């Protein structure tokens, strides 16, 4: 094995999905698959989740929403919330992608494209609840809701949902965000039927703050077994991916392995424990295309070293590595280069 592998476990993904869905019920899971499903590979993740009965996918941008549609077929609900170009809007409308809308301008463009194409846009309006990241401000909300309702009456739009995003930094802030969110839902309810779905929470709040959950919960990290940095372990959740490289040379009692910083391994994680056939050893140094690991008795060329994973060989999780360098597990996963082969283990 001359190329490093990200080995991804289908059974573990299925188990995590089941654990998350059980935990958040009766809220429905929207599996977030942005950034190529957090580096795990979107097609495979969507196929596995679709087969496990996941109905909603969150893709961030329209291009990956179309990828989800290709894999999951016409019945899946796919939510894309990046403000998109008119050409992307057209593709989304034709493929029945649900669009997250956080500005009056974007809403106007979607309505115009729906009119031009003769289709009904499925829209989830986003209220700003304090993050100031692409959401309609409270003072503009009534006007935007009125515009959406007018388009609905004209047969150009279906107001499917109301949503927002919260910081998950402190309970008090999240409580305030929820109050602002519920007020926005109330305004929508006064203008017509309450939309079918409301969604506010991602992994951490969905897991730990049941009272904040809406009818949908947008969850990425925990489904992939990535716990929050500085957060606790989670019942029934394990990392689904292991990063594996093999020994290419033995030198002065150390093992040289075929993965380096050019493959996306941060050189600053040197000193971390990694998994070897004889258990945990120190990752001594990370060079461009190779790294050096403290040796073990009987080490041989071709032996496998686990850089991160579920812990079966003495390695730690991506999040534990991330904590050493003040980042999050998602960043360790999404930085891995295309040279790292994604291999699905069933
Ligand atoms: C990434 C993202 C999520 C999922 O966050 P996790 O913490 O990975 O569960 C949910 N909602 C939005 C808007 C996001 O950008």
Automatic annotation (TrEMBL):
SMART domains: Ala_racemase_C (SM01005). It holds the Pfam family Ala_racemase_C. Its cofactor is pyridoxal 5'-phosphate. It is an enzyme of class 5 (isomerase). Its EC number is 5.1.1.1. Gene3D superfamilies: Alanine racemase (3.20.20.10), Lyase, Ornithine Decarboxylase, Chain A, domain 1 (2.40.37.10). InterPro entries: Ala_racemase, Ala_racemase/Decarboxylase_C, Ala_racemase_C, Ala_racemase_N, Ala_racemase_pyridoxalP-BS, PLP-binding_barrel. PROSITE patterns: ALANINE_RACEMASE. Residues 240-345 form the Alanine racemase C-terminal domain. PANTHER family: ALANINE RACEMASE, ALANINE RACEMASE, CATABOLIC-RELATED. This is Alanine racemase. It comes from Microbacterium croceum.
């Amino acid at each position: 094995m001359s190329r490093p592998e990200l080995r991804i476990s289908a059974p573990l993904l299925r188990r995590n999905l089941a654990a998350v869905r059980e935990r958040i019920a009766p809220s429905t899971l929207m599996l977030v698959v942005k950034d190529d499903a957090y580096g795990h590979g979107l097609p495979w993740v969507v196929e596995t989740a679709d087969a496990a009965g996941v109905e909603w996918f969150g893709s961030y941008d329209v291009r990956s929403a179309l990828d989800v549609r290709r894999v999951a077929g016409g019945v899946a609900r796919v939510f894309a919330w990046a403000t998109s170009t008119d050409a992307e809007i057209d593709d989304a409308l034709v493929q029945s992608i649900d669009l997250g809308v956080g500005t009056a301008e974007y809403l106007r463009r979607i309505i115009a494209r729906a009119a031009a194409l003769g289709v009904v846009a499925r829209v989830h309006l986003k209220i700003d609840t304090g993050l100031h990241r692409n959401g309609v401000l409270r003072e503009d909300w009534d006007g935007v809701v009125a515009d959406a309702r007018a388009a609905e009456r004209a047969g150009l739009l279906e107001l499917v949902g109301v949503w927002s995003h919260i910081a998950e930094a402190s309970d008090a802030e999240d409580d305030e965000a929820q109050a602002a969110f519920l007020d926005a839902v109330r305004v929508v309810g006064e203008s017509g039927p309450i939309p079918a779905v409301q969604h506010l929470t991602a992994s951490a709040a969905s897991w730990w703050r049941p009272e904040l959950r809406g009818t949908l919960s947008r969850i990425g990290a925990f489904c992939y077994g990535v716990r929050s940095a500085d957060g606790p372990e989670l019942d029934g959740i394990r990392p689904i991916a292991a990063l594996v490289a093999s020994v290419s040379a033995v030198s002065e009692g150390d093992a040289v392995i075929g993965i380096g910083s050019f493959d996306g391994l941060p050189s600053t994680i040197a000193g971390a424990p990694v998994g070897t056939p004889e258990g945990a050893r120190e990752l001594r140094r990370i060079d461009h295309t190779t790294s050096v690991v403290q040796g073990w008795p009987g080490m041989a060329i071709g032996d496998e070293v686990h850089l991160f994973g579920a812990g079966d060989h003495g390695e730690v999780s991506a999040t534990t590595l991330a904590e050493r360098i003040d980042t999050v597990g998602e960043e360790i996963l999404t930085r891995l280069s295309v040279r790292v082969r994604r291999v699905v283990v069933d």
